[in-house]
TrEMBL record:
Membrane topology of this protein: Multi-pass membrane protein
Subcellular location, principal: membrane
Recorded superkingdom: Bacteria
Keyword list, A-Z: 2Fe-2S, Cell membrane, Disulfide bond, Electron transport, Iron, Iron-sulfur, Membrane, Metal-binding, Oxidoreductase, Respiratory chain, Transmembrane, Transmembrane helix, Transport
Name listed for the protein in its UniProt record: Cytochrome bc1 complex Rieske iron-sulfur subunit
InterPro entries associated with the record: QcrA_N, Rieske_2Fe-2S, Rieske_2Fe-2S_sf, Rieske_Fe-S_prot
The keyword Metal-binding is assigned to this record: yes
Amino acid sequence: MSTATNPHEKPRTPTAAELDEMTPDQVATLAANLDDVVVVKNTPKFPISGTRAERRAERAVATWFVISALSGLAFLGVYLFWPFEYVAPDQPGYFVYTLYTPLIGLLLGLAVLSLGVAVITYVKKFFPDEVSVQQRHDGPSDEVARRTVVAQLVKAGQDTTIARRSLIKRSAGAAAGVLGLGVGVAAVAPLIHNPWKGRDDADLWVTPWRSINGEKVYLRRDTGDPSEISLVRPEDQEAGSMETVFPFRESERGDEEALHAALRRSDAPVMLIRLRPGTPVVHREGQEDYHYGDFYAFSKICTHLGCPTSLYEQQTQRILCPCHQSQFLATEYGKPIFGPAARPLPQLPITVDEDGYFIARGDFNEPIGPGFWEWPGFWNRGRS
């Protein structure tokens, strides 16, 4: 066995046979000496095990681990089962809906915080008070140093008494397991919903402007009251102006849930633009009859990242997305002329019915918003 008479003297490197004969404590001491570390003081927090103070400290640590585990379980329950669908302020269940985001944030934060407090509390209450001095030295670690690191870790575990504290180990394992499960569920849950369910009727292919069983889909404005139906006529809009409109079906009249849904769906808003008479227009191939007179309807969802293209400049006929400054030309089928957007805004085919109200002649002939790989036109975006 290799020892040093002077604590500041570098010990002789022992052979493999000598290392095998040494006890774990001796190897740990050798590791400190090889690293030029002098342990000045190492005082255990509880020299006598089983005291009331020790058990009280152990229960305190375990309590924080249990709080973390319970918070993680509560987070999972809220994340998976709490009502998260939008509810309007004047509808039953609105207060419960508003609690969803605060609750998942509060519970996940409490789980992580409690886990951190438990670890810090354990370190403060059970790690021995140690003062060590190490001399700095350069160079890679040799074989002996690498082997003695394991002994140091074993001794550290013995000094912190974690091996014999089953209550803390079980509570810590429960907290870490639940927290890890919560993070995993949060990461995987958005992938469970299949956007292609329904094939041709999948969410990414259709919008609320699609006619169901041949029923008319009117253009209505949002007055602030979903139950107040205000349909749009050509004479309601001045030349050079833009108005945001939403879909409406007579079968939905009086159906508060359906009326709310039509106004809150992200793929519903459409810009109805009335160009000035005589304005030259370039039509997209196959969409020459999508307009009605000087009226053109474009999706309000930017084809870059889905922001609302809510600005219209009537002098230049440019539609502007304020998020990333993409600009689309209303007189050229919503073609992007500036910014990161790569394809035109989808155009809604419109006409006027026998009562003089605007109606949609059908749904958009392409998906709205940003492109996606499964869309056949994704790889040709920006070429039209």
